[in-house]
Design goal:
11 strands, 117 residues, mainly beta
Length: 117
């Protein structure tokens, strides 16, 4: 099992920045990639960004490209999501997930990001 805890969410004005953190514990050596998802009220959970722990290859949803940056500190089992130029539509609960080599997916509890006008 891989346990994930997100932090760093909060209230920010449009145009501002936030940095989300995801701390992984447990069988982290089985982790292949880390991903961030988000879910806005009344909407389905959607992919935001991913990073492969081995190659550091990243991938982003079109809605956040150029504004968000995903990074990882494998030594400390941390993954980050730097969010700049935040928009009202970025308001959501943000979830960190770990994908293992065995294709298992583990989720954190989520952290709320609210962007105000």
């Amino acid at each position: 099992q891989v346990q994930l805890v997100e932090s760093g969410g909060g209230l920010v004005q449009a145009g501002g920045s936030l940095r989300l953190s995801c701390a992984a514990a447990g069988r982290t050596f089985t982790t292949y990639a880390m991903r961030w998802f988000r879910q806005a009220p009344g909407k389905e959970r959607e992919f935001v960004a991913s990073i492969d722990w081995g190659s550091s290859r990243t991938n982003y949803a079109d809605a956040v490209k150029g504004r968000f940056t995903i990074s990882s500190d494998n030594t400390n089992n941390m993954t980050y999501l730097q969010m700049n130029s935040l928009k009202l539509e970025d308001t959501a609960v943000y979830y960190c997930s770990a994908v293992t080599y065995g294709a298992d997916v583990h989720w954190g509890q989520g952290t709320q990001v609210t962007v105000s006008p």
